[in-house]
Amino acid sequence: MMHTTDTPPGNTGAASVFPVYLASAVLARTADEGARVALVMLSTQRADSPALGGALVAALMIPHVAAAPVAGALADTVRRRRLFHGGAVTLYGAALAALAVLVGRINDVVVLVLAVAAGCVAPLLTGGLTSLLGELLTKERLTRAFSADAVSYNLAGICGPAVAAALGTAVGAGVALAALGVGAMLGGLLLFSLRLRPRGDGRSQPRRMRPAELLRGAAELGRNRPLRSVTWASSAGQMGVGALPVVTVLLADEYHAPWVTGGLMTAFAAGALAGSLSYAYRPVGAKCPERVVLWGLLATGVPLAGVPWTQHAVSAAALFATAGFCTGPLFSALLASRERYASVAARTQIFTLGAGLKSTFAAAGAAAAGALNGLGVTALLLGTAACQVVAAALGVVLLTGRRPDPADSVNDPA
Q1: Domain boundaries, position 262
Q2: Mean per-residue pLDDT for 15-26?
Q3: Where would a tag sit more exposed on the chain, N or C end, judged by fewer CB atoms within 10 A?
Q4: What's the pTM value of the predicted model, to 2 decimals?
Q5: Are 160 and 33 in contact (CB under 8 A)?
C-alpha cells in the first residue's frame, strides 16, 4: 500500500525516479514534435489536402501559447499533481490516436476542434513536465537533471519528425500518428508512478482557481530580474533560431546541394544535443545560470555570423553544429534559472509561459525570414546572428540590479 501514497522527494528512491521521468518526457515530447509532420502527411495521403494539414498544425500549435497561463495555473493549484500531469499527457496521446483515425473521414471542423483541445494540453508536455523536477530531486542533483531534460528536448526534436516521416512513408501517416499517440499515452502512464507529495494536509478540500492567479506568472516575470532577463533574452534569441529553416533552404540553393536543407538543421540539433550532454557532465557557471544563458546567446551568434564567409556546405554544417552546441548549455541554464528564481506558487506557470513565449518568437522569426527572403541569404544569416547578440544585450539590461536570493523565491507564498 505504500506505493499508492505520494512520498517526499530526495529519498533513497530518488535515483530511480529520474529515469522514469526522463523516459516519460522523451515519449511525450517526441509525440509532440512528430505530430506536426504526421498531420501534414496524413492530410495529404488520406484527404489530398495539404491545406488541412497546415490548419491542423496551426490548431495544435497556437494553444501552446494561448493556453500556457491557464495550464500552468491549474498545475500550480491542483492537489494531486502526478494524476494531473499523467492524465494530461495520456489525454494528449489519446487525442493524437483519435486524429489518426478521424482525419479525412469526418468533417474537418471536428478534427480541427480536437487538435485545438490537444494543443491546450501541450504546454504541460514541455514546461509543465520540467517544472516537476524540483519536486522529484534534491537541490544538489537539479543542475545535471536540467541538462538531461534539455537532452530530452533535443532528442524529441530529432527523433519526432524522423519517426513520423519514416513510418508515414513506410506504412502510412495514420499508423505513424497513432504510434506517436500510443507513445505519449505510455509516457503519461509512467508519470503516474512518480512520487510527488500532494499539496495540503490531505484533509483540505481542493480550492477553486482565482482569476488573478492567471496573471501571477506574468507578473513575476515582470518584477523578478533574473527571470525577466532570461525569459525575454532567450525568447528574442529564438527569433533567429526560428528563421534558420528558411535560411537553410536558401543555402541549399546557393551550394547546389539539396541535402543542405535538412542536413544543416540536423547538424544544429546534433550540436545542441552534444552541448546539453557536455553541460550535464560539467555544469560551468551553475551558481549563476542566468549569466550562462546570456553568454550562450552571444556564443551562438558568432558561428552563425561566419557562415556567409564559407564557400563549402560541409564548413557551413560545422558552423551550424557549433552554434547548436552553444544552445545546449544555454537551454539547460534557462531551465535551472526558472527553477531557482520562480516562486513555488507560480513555478509551473512560469515554465509554461516561458516555453510558450519561445515558441511564439520562433514562429515570428520564421515568418519574418520568409517575408524578407528577397534580401538574400547573407543578410538573413547576419540578421539571425544579430538576433543572438541583441538578445544577450537585452538580457544584460534587464538583469541590471540586485540578484534575489533563491531562498526568497522558494519561500514566497505569492
Answers
A1: 213-404
A2: 86
A3: N
A4: 0.74
A5: yes
